[in-house]
Amino acid sequence: MNISGATALVTGANRGIGRHFATQLAERGAKVYATARRPGSIDLPGVEVLQLDITNPASIKAAAAVATDVDLLVNNAGISTGTNLLGSELDAIRREMDTHLWGNLNMVRAFAPVLAANGGGAIVNVLSALSWFSYDGSNAYAVAKAAEWSMTNGIRLELAAQNTLVTGVVLGAADTDIMAGADYDGPLTDPADVARAALDGVEKGLIEVVVDQWSAHVKASLAADPADFYQQLLAT
């Protein structure tokens, strides 16, 4: 699809990758609904600000009732609780699932009819290399992102008949607020580069955009013995 002339809705547009999505979409000539749980936290020029909490079905329904001209949905909003699966409170694990799986699935379910009415359009789901592996200290996030990755593949099949492109965007660590407090000292991808690669991918009709070398390395490792990958991971 062409970004110029499109109408896009971006979740979590107040900061990080979502802010760059909203900015670049507007620069490319799209109408942009920039959304966040606290709409006052969005200070971008040239966008229409909407309140949206993707973990609240009523909030999603209200946004879909307003943004009836959307033909590009960018599911970017996310959290990271830094929680493992054992010895941690289940509430934190549920928050990860409620956001990355149920929240994004509810967004798709609400906006799929909108996209169909507007010719099909496209959906971008911002995923993670942690969709494909686990890391001690982020196992709840990995489970939630793996579920979102599988959900992305499923809705791609279900929405093909209405001509909706579904693009999964896979990245490693980006220079965002989520990573600011993380125990991580490796390279960080510029969030502007993530948004740019994703939007270029949509315009090319790609169903998957692998943003960085680390994500490409993780993907390639899936065809090999997992023991090799995890031995390397534990050695770093």
UniProtKB/TrEMBL annotation:
<protein>
    <submittedName>
        <fullName>SDR family oxidoreductase</fullName>
    </submittedName>
</protein>
<dbReference type="Pfam" id="PF00106">
    <property type="entry name" value="adh_short"/>
</dbReference>
<dbReference type="InterPro" id="IPR002347">
    <property type="entry name" value="SDR_fam"/>
</dbReference>
<keyword id="KW-0560">Oxidoreductase</keyword>
<comment type="similarity">
    <text>Belongs to the short-chain dehydrogenases/reductases (SDR) family.</text>
</comment>
<dbReference type="InterPro" id="IPR036291">
    <property type="entry name" value="NAD(P)-bd_dom_sf"/>
</dbReference>
